[in-house]
Amino acid sequence: MGSPSRPEGSEAVSLPAEDRAAIHELIAKYTVAEDSGQADDLAALFTEDGRFTNSKGVSVAGREELARHARKRWEKPAARDIVHLVGNVTVEATSDGARAESAAMSVLRHADGFTIRDLVSKVDELRREDGRWLFSSRTIVPTQR
Fold this sequence. Notes:
Residues 17-139 form the SnoaL-like domain. The protein is an alpha+beta fold. The protein is 26% helix and 46% strand. Strand 4 and strand 5 (113-129) form a beta hairpin. The radius of gyration is 15 Å and the shape is globular. It starts with 16 loop residues before the first helix and ends with a strand.
């Protein structure tokens, strides 16, 4: 992946299987919301001060801005022809929550079938709030060629 597995100086802490499953579900819900234009549902997967940083380094913070950003993306007709597939998810506990990394491929749907659009890594910092795991930050890291 595009970054070290664990920030220097942090120690691995055990994370229960239920939390790991909830984090995998969170990542899946994000992908579904992104691919179906559910901007408010996508923003609700972040903490109130959550931040999303795209592969070009542009950041959006706060649920309201996250929803606005997702709606703006969905207004582009090309966005409706992109499907995201996520795999190779790793999750580990951190002192203030959890960190997940995953590989994601976006596929472009067109009249003749599908083509791979890009491959990226997603690096997530996660916090538990009101009994739910949420993204406190999600950073897209371009895959090195």
